[in-house]
Specification:
Helix 2 packs antiparallel against helix 4 (about 60-95). The chain has four helices and no strands. The two termini are about 30 Å apart. The relative contact order is 0.13. It is mainly α. Helix content is about 90%, strand content about 0%.
Amino acid sequence: MIDLFKIYLASLNFEQLCILFKIFSSIFIVLCFIKIVLIYIGNYLIEYLDLKNRLPWLARFIRLRRIFQNYYLILNFSLIFITLIFMLYVNISTLFIM
């Protein structure tokens, strides 16, 4: 399966490779945004259902989750930013090479 994909990639020209890169990058950015939305939905549900008080044994995991979610947000925004920079580079290189 991977060999077939390598053969397919080898058969593409530069412009087609750039388009394929943009498609994969766009999918990646959408997935990062979905992760960010799910973080905020999780926070909303934890606050709305008052899980800290209703389930005290779960409070430790909620605290850990809040600590790590800040890192996840920073990571996701950083990945989105880096992906956008690469997409900009690919677009500019496609414009000037073609």
